[in-house]
């Protein structure tokens, strides 16, 4: 993990087109501004993990459905 120290209104760059700026520091909270191309998805980690879990559940449901259909037609 890369650890960087930034002050208020200072930024870091990720690649050529993603900029993260420290907008405010209030107690233990830090507000970040992120400028990135529209095609880049940006989520809080807990939201990202939730999306991944839902996608995996949907994939497993599809596989189970296809397996059940395959067994159904095999019996006929």
From TrEMBL:
Its main location: cytoplasm. The keyword Transferase does not apply. Signal peptide: none annotated. Keywords: Bacterial flagellum biogenesis, Cytoplasm, Repressor, RNA-binding, Translation regulation. Coiled coil: none annotated. InterPro entries: CsrA, CsrA_sf. One of its GO terms (molecular function) is mRNA 5'-UTR binding. One of its GO terms (biological process) is regulation of bacterial-type flagellum assembly. Pfam families: CsrA. It comes from the Bacteria. It is found in: Cytoplasm. GO terms for cellular component: cytosol. Belongs to the CsrA/RsmA family. Homodimer; the beta-strands of each monomer intercalate to form a hydrophobic core, while the alpha-helices form wings that extend away from the core. A translational regulator that binds mRNA to regulate translation initiation and/or mRNA stability. Usually binds in the 5'-UTR at or near the Shine-Dalgarno sequence preventing ribosome-binding, thus repressing translation. Its main target seems to be the major flagellin gene, while its function is anatagonized by FliW. HAMAP family: CsrA. This is Translational regulator CsrA. It comes from Peribacillus asahii. The gene is csrA.
